[in-house]
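Chapter summary example.
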Amino acid sequence: MDGQRARVDLLLALALVKAHRAEHGTWPTTLPPLHPERAVLLPTALKLQPAEGDTLRLIPEAAGLQELALTATP
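The structure predicted for these 74 residues follows.
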């Protein structure tokens, strides 16, 4: 997996978790669906991890891409 693809996937995932937060008031535990009836399947495997305060970390699972991790804030 290349870094550019991972960055695009992270940005999409960030938008999805922020939309979920805005709608439900909480961070999701898994990546929310892009469409209600379809799961999001991104080429980059990501894990969502609660972080300090009220933030959420989106971390690529591939060891070589973890430096690209993003933090979502409310």
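To summarize the output: The chain has one helix and three strands.
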